[in-house]
Amino acid sequence: MFTKSKAYPNKMFFFGIAIFSLMFCQSNTVDEQTPPDPPTGGGNNGNYATASFWLTKADESTKLQKQTDILFNNATNNYQTLDVDASQKYQTIDGFGYTLTGGSVQVINQLSAAKKEELLQDLFSNKDNSIAVSYIRLSIGASDLNSSVFSYDDMPAGQTDLSLANFSLAKDQALIEMLKKILTINPNIKIMATPWSPPVWMKDNGSTIGGSLQPQYYNVYAQYFVKYIQAMKAQGITIDAITPQNEPLHPGNNPSLLMTAPQQATFIKNSLGPAFQAANITTKIVLYDHNCDKPEYPMEILADAEASKYVDGSAFHLYAGNIAVLSNVHLAYPTKNLYFTEQWTGSTSSFSDDLMWHSKNVIIGSMRNWSKIALEWNLANDPNFNPHTDGGCTQCKGAITVNHNEAFTKNVAYYIIAHASKFVPQNSQRIASTQPGNLSSVAFTTPDGKTTLIVLNEGNATENFNIKMNGKSAATSLPARAVATYVF
Fold first, then answer.
1. Does residue 456 carry a pLDDT above 70?
2. How far apart are CA 52 and CA 320, in angstroms?
3. Inter-residue contact 31 to 90 (CB < 8 Å)
4. Using one digit for the tens of pLDDT, what is the confidence trace for 83-123?
5. Helix (H) or strand (E) holding 413
6. Which residue among the candidates 32, 306, 342, 376 is catalytic per the annotation?
7. Which residues touch 176 (CB under 8 Å, ≥6 apart)?
8. Which phi and psi angles does 303 have, rounded to 5°?
9. Rounded to whole angstroms, how far apart are CA atoms 370 and 337?
10. What is the dihedral of CA 289, 294, 297, 299, to 10 degrees?
11. How confident is the model at residue 331 (pLDDT cuts 50, 70, 90)?
């Protein structure tokens, strides 16, 4: 988690873009500029007469509320047209969700049994009144939104554990139990895991904050990942993907680690990749896991054939840089996947501004630029934005605020993710859509053959437009500063 130096995302976006990112910036109409991957299936959706329509307004007067269906009746008007083209197919989708931090587990467990069940069903079920979160991220050991710092193999000062004899998931048992419950609700949920820091005894500064992994411990640390994946599997939890380090260029967090691109490349090609191969581990290795202003970091590793052969793709955050950079990485390495793994909402920012910025960048932007996932940051915390470590993020707002044992509040990140997760299940495929006027959009074909279209109106006036697909058109309107999801 990028902590105390964080500015409101809009400010970071406009003032934090590095020169390299500007060089790589491109139009957000990437659908029309990037050659699509070969079609991978999915039918031609021609069996619709109406579209269901869900709406959230930035003024909070409407939140994920179903509206009156719109009709594909080819009415004559002078509205602008948003074209959806299912013949142009792009990446398949792994899911949408949050990071389930240790702190999230701690506060959710403060709810009564009935209220906790209600919340978990709301988040992870695919029932009509749920949002069907399909992807979660975990920390390997503590993140900065745990109440204290720990690894799975902490040793007294001056001692090491080269055989990892003391490795234990015991300090995360509450998280493991919650994951088991989530898996009973959604057995197909995908999980990515990432460390904020290795055990301190492996580091060159003897601190949970910053420092680097000492090369003599690269192989031991690779076995630490192996043990983690195997131990989680023994609990019935499959880790689909890992990244070697959260925010490797942000060593000021607690916990954290500095890991340069050459260090990560060496670790992957000489230690982590071979260790996974030897243990028959199929968990994906995903690079980087940091901001869009440094695409040279993952591309430097992807250019190393010995490292790249073990790598599934690259992960990004957007506290600096431009989301369009993901498309440049895709164009350079089209066989490697892309993942958008974290963006915070802050205690001092507004529902209105966050809904607009995150819907445009985290959901629509990441998807239009080839990401397979879109994740907001922390799932839950208390009204004072606790828990966090000493030195961890003090302003990170969860998607859920647990107020007391019988009440929780749904915050803006809940709705940002819900507009995608509820309507774009795993294995959906992005298809082409245009972005007329003030409208931003992204479209998908779902596994059951339906089309999902997410549209954002950032402007200060209502936008009237036609949705057109397969020669059929439906007239609709989107209020000022609002996001809508259409399903047909």
1. yes
2. 36
3. yes
4. 999 999 999 999 999 999 999 999 999 999 999 999 999 99
5. helix 412-421
6. 342
7. 169, 232, 235, 237
8. -75, -15
9. 8
10. 100
11. very high
Beta bridge partners of residue 54, listed in sequence order: 66, 485
**For residue 316, what is the enclosing H or E element?**
strand 311-321
Q: Are 358 and 416 in contact (CB under 8 A)?
A: yes
Q: Among this protein's residues, is 342 annotated catalytic? A: yes
Chain centroid offset of residue 126 CA: 19
Distance (Å, whole) CA 231 – CA 225 = 10
Check residue 13 and give its pLDDT: 37
Report pTM: 0.92
Backbone angles phi, psi at 287, to 5 degrees: -80, 165
Please write the tens of the pLDDT for every residue from 93-103: 999 999 999 99
Q: Of the candidates 336, 369, 168, which has an alpha carbon nearest to the alpha carbon of residue 241?
A: 336
Share of the chain above pLDDT 70, in %: 91
- 3-class DSSP state of 22: helix
446-456: b (≥16 Cβ within 10 Å) or e:
beeebbbbbbb
Give me the residue label for tokens 């073990």: 310
Contact between 412 and 57 under an 8 Å Cβ cutoff? The reply is no
Q: How far is CA 480 from CA 47, 345, 360, 438, 464, in A?
A: 31, 22, 14, 10, 11
Q: What is the mean pLDDT of the chain?
A: 93
Q: Does the pLDDT of residue 261 top 50, yes or no?
A: yes
**pLDDT tens digits along 128-164:** 999 999 999 999 999 999 999 999 999 999 999 999 9
The closest of 379, 368, 344 to 138, measured between CA atoms, is: 379
Q: Count other Cβ atoms within 10 Å, centred on residue 215.
A: 13
Question: Is 355 a residue whose pLDDT tops 90?
Answer: yes
| Cα(70)–Cα(465) distance, integer angstroms | 12
Question: Among residues 247, 300, 376, 463, which one is catalytic?
Answer: 247
Beta bridge partner(s), residue 340:
316, 374
What are the structure tokens assigned to 382, written together?
């208390």
